[in-house]
Amino acid sequence: MAEITMGAVGERDAVLCFKAVGMTVIPTTTAEETTRALFTLSRQGVRVIFITENAAKQAPEAMERYRGDPQMAIIPIPGSTGAGGYAMARVRANVEKAIGADILFSNTDRQKEG
Amino acid sequence: MPALLRVNPTRMELTRIKRRLVTARRGHKLLKDKRDEMVRQFILLIRENDRLRREVEKELTLALGNFAMARAVTEPELLEEALLCPARSIRVDMGIRSVLSVRVPTLRMNETGQETTLSYGLAETSAQLDGAIESLAELLPKLIHLAEVEKTCDLLADEIERTRRRVNALEYVMIPQFIETIRFITMKLDENERGSLTRLMKVKDMIEQRAGNG
Prior knowledge:
- The structure holds two protein chains of two kinds.
- Chain A has two domains: 1-81, Rossmann fold (3-Layer(aba) Sandwich); 84-114, no CATH class.
- Chain A is built from six helices and four strands.
- Chain A has helices at 12-19, 31-43, 53-58, 60-65, 86-99, 105-113; strands at residues 2-10, 24-27, 46-52, 73-77.
- In chain A, helix 1 (12-19) links the parallel strand 1 (2-10) and strand 2 (24-27).
- Chain A is globular and about 40 Å long.
- By secondary structure, chain B is mainly α.
- Helix content of chain B is 74%, strand content 10%.
- Chain B has helices at residues 11-73, 76-83, 127-213; strands spanning 89-99, 102-112.
- Chain B has a two-stranded antiparallel ribbon.
- In chain B, helix 1 (11-73) runs antiparallel to helix 3 (127-213).
- The longest helix of chain B has 87 residues, at 127-213.
- Chain B is rod-shaped and about 135 Å long.
């Protein structure tokens, strides 16, 4: 077990709050800043990075780059405007990739709609 | 019909391909079992991932809403100053475990200075800020668990897809190819044998005919 630190990347309104609980925070607004922030944090040894949905949408390549690395987790979280469904879409994409069809959550959605 | 392998129709090749077919069938069975078990574990994990994500999104949206309110009623400089030096430093232990030979992370929270959450005096900041930070601190263990589960799901989904491709390649390409090639070589060898047998019988007939004439 190795000790690691955690970080947060995204809109200032959302990520500043994470600073108060001891995370390394980099506020970003553009795609370039987000990508650079992810690389900077990964170089600093931050292994778990929470990224706001809007920022994650801006930097899909950077997110994909660390996808296969078991020692680096980039987790989308809702921004200050709430959850936009990006993170849940990723969960569903994983189900479709692994099982072939979204058979797990399509039923629960239908029940909720009904 | 699967394509034939480009090999010489000899007994040696036949033995070699028969051995490869046995290995391919064993590999196919093993990979299929691996895929089934991975899917079983994936379903358990993805359900937990879905539940955790819904909870985290709900609670985090509330906490961030409170924080936005606090930002609205506090001077930006004061807020930055209040959050400049956190009262707690969060540390997490990360390890690696193996789920059916897929390396996935394990995260354990190891907090220091847990008693105090607020790093500022209460005089110049709003109550919403205290609430937002308190609720975020309470949410942290769940966030860390979500990170672990979601990363595991990401890695497992990729591995399941890879294994499924391997199983399909073995089942629908390699094994039929081997079977077809074995059939082809066996037929070719039988054909050669029949050819040489016929030739021998013909030669024998010719020799007998010649002996009868002489």
